[in-house]
Design goal:
Oligomer: single chain
Bound molecules: fe (iii) ion
Number of helices: 12
Order of helices and strands: HHHHHHHHHHHH
Helix content: 55-70%
Largest sheet: none
């Protein structure tokens, strides 16, 4: 199967398109961690599934770092934004096909770390060295004002859950099912969203 042309990306081709990114680029390293990018995202999805999360939340965990690959997506998806943050870019390229239950935890997964560092001392203690390093680059723990604003996010629970699975999905000894295990689930989430929009 050849990769779908990004110029004609649609609800019918998006699952194969993402699968192709996992296949070609998943082995790339996850900066400063002992797992590859695909291992990391598959582990986050596995943790979500083991926790009994809803399908959109599992898909969100699986795709939370897709923003590192937005150069694979059509140019216009990126041109709509001005920043280059991977969390915002990832949510933006998925937004035409996925509900906010998927894109909100992706959009906010860095903010969620800053939120949890401000509200849960035990959370900070379990962050990896690489994640503590990036926390400082990302603005450090949220201020009290930022915390009260962020607490109003409609998908807050899913946002915080995906963040915690993101932090935990860094174990080089864990085996996971491949991307293909999740492909039918992604297709169901996309199809349900298309139906909701019509
Ligand atoms: Fe991640």
């Amino acid at each position: 199967m050849s990769a779908p042309d990004p110029k004609t990306l649609s609800a019918e081709t998006i699952v194969d398109f993402i699968g192709d990114i996992f296949a070609r680029r998943g082995a790339e390293s996850y900066l400063g961690e002992r797992v590859s990018m695909s291992q990391h995202m598959l582990q986050a999805a596995q943790l979500a599934q083991q926790a009994g999360a809803d399908e959109p939340v599992i898909v969100s965990a699986l795709l939370h770092d897709i923003g590192h690959y937005t150069n694979e997506f059509p140019d216009d998806a990126l041109a709509r934004g001005t920043d280059n943050l991977h969390e915002e870019a990832g949510a933006r390229v998925l937004a035409p096909f996925f509900p906010r239950a998927v894109t909100d935890p992706i959009r906010h997964h860095v903010a969620a770390k800053r939120y949890l560092c401000a509200t849960d001392p035990a959370y900070f203690d379990q962050l990896s060295d690489a994640s503590v390093h990036t926390l400082n680059l990302q603005g450090g723990p949220m201020t009290a004002d930022e915390v009260s604003l962020f607490a109003k996010e409609p998908n807050l629970d899913a946002i915080l859950q995906v963040r915690i699975w993101d932090d935990q999905g860094k174990d080089p000894t864990i085996k996971t099912p491949p991307f293909e295990h999740y492909a039918p689930m992604i297709a169901r989430v996309v199809a349900a969203h298309q139906k909701d929009m019509t």
